[in-house]
Amino acid sequence: MKNVALPTHPLRSATDLDAVLSAIGDARIVLLGEASHGTHEYYTWRAALSKRLIQEKGFNFIAVEGDWPDCFEVNCAIKQDQKEYGTAAKLLQTFNRWPTWMWGNWEIAALIDWLHQHNQQHPMPERVGFYGLDVYSLWESLQEILQFVSKQGDGAVAAAHKAFKCFEPYGDDPQEYAQAVAFVSDDCEDEVTTMLQTLRRQLRATKTHAGLDRETAFAAEQNALVAVNAERYYRAMIKGGPASWNVRDGHMMETLTRLLDLHGPDSKPIIWEHNTHIGDARFTDMARDNTVNIGQLAREQYGREQVFAVGFGSYQGSVIAGKRWGAPWEVMPVPRATRGSWEELLHNQLEGENALLLSSELKGTAARQQTFGHRAIGVVYRPEFEQYGNYVPSLMAERYDAFLFLDQTKALHPLPTEANKHTPPDMYPWTE
């Protein structure tokens, strides 16, 4: 391993991203990863690359590993002419479900302010959006649907109330619902499916307008879709295996496709998710379990030349995480990467410097031919046990199209948001 030499580009400032921008070329979809949900540099480098993609290549929305209702509130706020939301920090208090720090942090607050300022320079149809791809917001989405149909006074009201009533006995606790219905036929699948179908028929019959009005109708349907797929997700989660993960990433891909259709044939999205979602699952050990992810699904659906995935990783530092699911966040140490890992290889070669690698330049190297352990830190993290479960075997140059290596990293800066009492159930093999 010591004799392996990989071609790299220096990475010191946003101008050093020229190489990856050139490699992205005319790709329509750019996926930006992270090796943890709590590292300052992952957020700031993704923001720097996203700004350049928006300004120089016309990318027109960011979609993240976050809940649809919360992200849509941010989307509407950054498209307003006036800064009616007050401060970005106040706006981001909408992310009050654990782990609150994922999107409720000062790094995202700075990006939100930039997006609002950028949008003021463009007419409404050209303003950059911010959307959530995830599936967890079952109760929040049901509540949003009830509010929408009540204002519209349409035929979907009865179906929405019936779906909401079906879930009421479980006290807006998805785990309680999943445990209650996992092995019986008495569930709410028919109710949420009927609600989605009824709402879609009603929306097709209703004339909507361009801009936010059109988006509001889209958001209502999206909340209904979340309810359908969340119900499937929580039932599958209790039974174990890869099914729940595949439901979740399938929902993310379905949402991305809908957003592309909403924004038209020239739309270009930037996706912010964990490496385990954006790095093609076929080139990791996930493939052995028939586990898929959005990186794989996007390549399959739109073609590899239209999808560009950028992985992130670091050698050592600190991170925000919880010691157990639902626990308060802490600043934790990230130990030196384990021997033989991708991160150790780059640290040794670069002698502590940051670097950018392009997969197109790795032909004939170990990155094309050899599987490396690649670090993945979740929202739950125990540094002392890292070597036993935080490394994903990966064929790096196939998993990603580019990789940003940041040798020393530090924890991101959470906002002082108090988490509400309802924590989604722990559903990850290593709590991604």
TrEMBL record:
Cross-referenced CDD domains: Ere-like (cd14728)
Family annotation (SUPFAM superfamilies): EreA/ChaN-like
InterPro entries reported for this sequence: Emycin_Estase, Hydrolase/PRTase-associated, UCP036794_erythomycin
Name under which the protein is recorded: Erythromycin esterase family protein
